[in-house]
Specification:
Distance between the termini: 18 Å
Structural class: alpha/beta
Oligomer: single chain
Order of helices and strands: EEEHEHHEHEHHHHHHEHE
Amino acid sequence: MTKPNKVVNYPISGSPDGGTLYLFYGLPSACSNKLVLMSAGFPDDEEIFIPFASKLSNELGAFVGVTCLPGYHDDGDNKSWTRCKKTGYTFDEMANAFREASKVLRKEYSLFSSLDGASSTIGEEKAKNKFIGIFHDWGVVPGLIWANRAFQDVNVTGTIKKAQVAPHSGTPASESDLLVAPPDELVLFDVLLPPHPETENLPLVKGTSVYEIFIALSYRGIFALCFMVQLYVGKVIGVGAFVMGMIILKVFQLSPTHNIDAKVIKSRKPPMDINRMIYMMYPYYQMFKSMLTSKGRKWLEDATLPKDLSQMPVLYMYGTDKRIMFHDYTSKKILEREHEEGTSKSNAIAVDNAGHW
């Protein structure tokens, strides 16, 4: 694995330093004006994005921070997850974690850029640099929640409001607490959420088919159940539920992905501990739990495309070799329309001969 230039921590719910951010950068003199925050989803920690981050840093001069969902980081012993919240993290806590990661990324960039003699504040860095959020799979959901909340925190004059630290982070708010700023652009891989509820002139598209709904509910339900068994019954029974669930998905062809993605998973060395993988299924459990509670539904209100794509454009890229797509058809059409009409830099691009990963 390519080694990062620096590794820093940031607060997540229940731990003042439970989040990990891998930083990639070159010499200060060669650094461009691009800051990038990246996170994948299930079942990936930082490693899957590290080659991409290294390439962005080396070839484009970007200052890149790679993180993962809370509880997904591994110290190399496959046991890090056992020290995290047993119930997993809510979408509110995941979004707050990304917010804390973005603040640490800005702070580190400010310190880094001062090495070449240029002194500037975080606010000045925001004014002259482009901040890009790149998310894949389950990283998209808290990524969009964080981006939309941060955008709402910016007032009409374009100034940035001071923010409180994440709830339960254990870190006191102070003047040194960094400014909250939304990303200037978003790149989303293979998962696209519904449009903002205030979006006007929604395009007419085909609805999600019964088959797609059935596949989606089947595999998500099985993953959520595996996590629940591990949480409430025990690890051994959880592994049994996982094995049975995988058999059901394979025999009845209920997996949303094809062999092209199965080969990617199998090629990973060393193979992931099954108990850790089951724990990483907590977003599926949190999804169903959020849909059943008013508080959870409130958290998901910001899980949409940005309201103003001219100010926060979205590039969506997805693989076509899958049993079902993971995007909202209306949102995909909106991004395509934005590109065709030149309304914003947004676009949706299909990648042939590619799957989810």
